[in-house]
Amino acid sequence: MYLERHNIEKFLADNDAIAGVKITEIKGSTPRNQDAWMLVSSSSIFRTIGGGQLESIAIEKARALLQTGAENQLALNIPLGPEIGQCCGGHVSISIKRLDDADYDTYRKILKVELADQPHIYIFGAGHVGKALAEACALLPYKPILIDSREDELSGAPSGVETHLTSIPESIVRSAKPNSAFVVLTHDHALDFMIVETALARGDATYIGMIGSKTKRASFNSWYKQETGQSQNLDKLTCPIGGKAIDGKSLGDKRPEIIAALALAEIIIHIGKVGDVAADQKGATHKAGIKI
User: Fold this and answer.
1) Residues 142 and 259 in one domain
2) What are the backbone dihedrals phi and psi of residue 289, each rounded to the nearest 5 degrees, phi first?
3) Does residue 263 share a domain with residue 140?
4) Is 189 left (phi over 0), alpha (psi -120 to 50) or beta?
5) Virtual CA dihedral for 53, 57, 59, 62, nearest 10 degrees?
6) Are 178 and 265 found together in one domain?
7) pTM score, two decimals?
8) Is the Cα dihedral 59, 61, 65, 71 positive or negative?
9) Strand locations in the chain, DSSP E?
10) Whole-angstrom Cα distance, residue 292 to residue 287?
């Protein structure tokens, strides 16, 4: 699933004529941000500019452009009001262009930049919760990385999720991409503690979470103070993960998929707090100096 949604090579190979659709300007409330893009062929699409009537109109115009061959490019200015059956209230400008081989290369580069810009979520422990969390992350514009010392557990990782088999997971923490998220759910409490200590020492983690209970949290706090001689970083650790769901109270549902979903909600909030410009593609192509 994760790879298929980003497999631009398959889309380009499967379609002879393709149009690029890009949001060039927005005003007011709109489904997507400026620079959001999609590719359109006569029978399929790759990515989205927001769905609904806006996207339907863009697809129709793109396919008409491909079919007639009368022109190679056109611009649309669409108010998102009752005229098209939408009530966003904003205004969107869209460019549509018939693509050539050079354009294909440009879109390949854009996608590469956007994927590289995605937040990395390092999941330590490929047990039930770890696998469920990796699978859930793979549906979002994030890069999940599943790490374990047990080869048999990693062999059951969700399709397309990057995995690392290692007996020294703290080395992966140290070499992780800046502003990454770290979720610690191994089979060994001592290992959990060591991974969390290493993550806290980085100082730039977007999110650090450890599975457990209030008792485990208290044990870690005591161990951390003894090991490091400090306590000022402890407020950066979320433990238990997914512990507060409604009005500050736990749901009490301990099924792996539920824990993973609640933890992912926490991660999303923390990523948003630090200004995730990659979340809606905004800024990624500009940073790389790529224009479409």
Assistant:
1) yes
2) 70, 30
3) yes
4) alpha
5) -170
6) yes
7) 0.84
8) negative
9) 19-27, 37-40, 45-46, 73-79, 91-98, 120-124, 143-148, 162-165, 181-184, 207-210, 237-238
10) 13
Amino acid at 221: N
* Residues 16, 18, 19: CA angle, nearest 5 degrees: 165
Quick one: tokens of 90?
């904003």
Claim to verify: residue 152 and residue 83 sit in the same structural domain: no
- Judging by DSSP bridges, how do beta strands 91-98 and 120-124 pair with one another? unpaired
Q: Residue 79's beta-bridge partner residues? A: 91
Last residue of one domain, picked from the residues 66, 87, 115: 115
How many domains does the chain contain in total? Answer: 2
Tell me: do 176 and 250 sit in the same domain: yes
CB atoms within 10 A of CB 69: 9
Long-range contacts of 102-106 (CB under 8 A, 24+ apart): 103/20, 103/292, 104/12, 104/18, 106/290, 106/291, 106/292
Q: Are strands 37-40 and 45-46 parallel, antiparallel or unpaired?
A: antiparallel
Domain that holds residue 191: 118-277
Phi, psi of 118 (to 5 degrees): -65, 145
DSSP-derived letter for residue 161 is -
- Picking from 101, 117, 110, the residue whose alpha carbon sits closest to that of residue 46 is 110
Same domain, 179 and 166: yes
For 46-101, what is each residue's pLDDT tens digit?
999 987 888 999 999 999 999 987 789 999 888 776 666 666 668 889 999 999 99
Tell me which residue of 150, 105, 165, 123 sits closest to 263, measured CA to CA.
123
For residue 45 the two structure tokens come to 């699409």
pLDDT over 60 at 282, yes or no: no
**pLDDT at residue 30 is higher than 90:** no
